[in-house]
Design brief:
Layout lengths: L9 E13 L8 H4 E12 L4 E15 L5 E15 L1 H6 L7 E14 L4 E15 L4 E19 L10 E5 L2 E13 L1
Antiparallel strand pairs: 1-2, 1-9, 2-3, 3-4, 4-5, 5-6, 6-7, 7-8, 7-9
């Protein structure tokens, strides 16, 4: 499959929706009280008819419960780069006039909660549903999950010997988002 020329198939998009933050103690808070507004802005390029890449900034107002049982809420941002695959172009052949595209995505980046003075890693996995309105305009519905709090953790052997420690990654929080928006294709 040939790559598109460097000056073609660029896009920008924006969307709004609902998000839920899931932390260690949030199970004690009613689910409805944890739903909040979220939004994102993206820019990217389709490299081939099947493979695309984007940079996305997402913002969310999160709420939940702290370890001491008190309600808490904060704003945070996620900055990530995603790889996208148009599976219908891959499995059914390229069709530039196709009305619907199913686009799974995976990416990584950082999450930042300025009010909490915290920055940590984030892993993003989602599905973008694209509905073509015209040559330049798409309507998008996206569902994605973000593992937040990625950090190296040291795993000791049975005797607690640091010399045999191994590194692995932990994620102790997640943010789930359902958004709808528009994409402009250049």
């Amino acid at each position: 499959m040939e790559a598109y020329p460097a000056n073609e198939k660029w896009f920008v998009s924006g969307s709004v929706g609902a998000g839920v933050y899931v932390g260690d103690y949030d199970m004690h808070t009613k689910f409805g009280n944890r739903i909040s507004i979220t939004g994102d802005v993206s820019g990217g390029k389709w490299i081939t008819p099947v493979l695309g890449a984007r940079l996305q900034i997402s913002g969310m107002h999160a709420s939940g419960e702290a370890k001491n049982g008190r309600s808490e809420s904060w704003n945070f941002m996620m900055y990530h780069a995603d790889i996208m695959v148009d599976v219908l172009n891959w499995w059914c052949g390229v069709d530039e006039e196709r009305t619907y595209s199913l686009i799974p995505l995976v990416g990584g980046g950082v999450a930042n909660a300025p009010g909490l003075n915290t920055t940590t890693g984030v892993l993003t996995v989602g599905v973008l549903n694209r509905f073509k309105v015209s040559e330049h305009l798409d309507i998008n519905v996206e569902i994605k999950g973000n593992l937040v709090g990625l950090k190296p953790a040291i795993v000791y052997d049975m005797q607690g010997d640091f010399n045999q420690a191994k590194s692995r990654f932990n994620a102790n929080n997640a943010a789930f988002e359902l958004t709808a928006g528009l994409t402009y294709n250049f």
